[in-house]
Amino acid sequence: MALPPNTKPHRQFVPQADPDAASRAFYEVLRQRRSVRMFSDRPVSEETIRWCIASAGTAPSGANKQPWRFVAVSDPELKRQIRLGAEAEEREFYERRATPEWLADLAPLGTDADKAFLEVAPWLIVVFKLMKQDRDDSGNQGQVYYANESVGIASGMLLSALHHAGLASLTHTPSPMKFLSAILGRPDHERPFLLIPVGHPSADCVVPDIARKPLDEIAVFQ
What we know:
Blueprint: H1 19-30, H2 46-56, E1 68-73, H3 76-97, H4 100-106, H5 117-120, E2 123-130, H6 147-164, E3 168-169, H7 178-184, E4 190-199, H8 215-218
């Protein structure tokens, strides 16, 4: 039987365990992931970061346009500039932009404008959303579709890959994030989406004592 144009046979991933056991095992791994703000300066190899980003790059995207760029930063001076830029925006947020309700919701997490972890964590991965495709050899830029959804999915897969590699991470969203484009010299068609510190948790790391909603509150089976 001839294949339709531009297709190839699908090779399904088959886990070693049955689907019930495999899905439960994956849940047991992911349920241990926590957002961390207390990092060790213990090194993490570039090879590890490369494979985690490669995993994120396998995400589905609108019309397969893959509208993402992952900028991995380990240079101490760049990390310091990013920290200073993030803290400037965060001070504005906590002192002027945030509503009382928003601040009350953040209070149990113990967050504030101090972002020292941005210099301590060995890597910062800045996720950029492409508003258009990169220019081709003729200077043309094609369209992208469902960019927010596509980059959001890829970011989730990146967090899962980092956790699977035994690394801690945090989704940090200082707003606005234009300073990241300036510091990292990114082109106009790339917009900052997430700032993710990556590394090992510090020996004295603690996390907020919070719980996830149970399955029956987040899922409906009909």
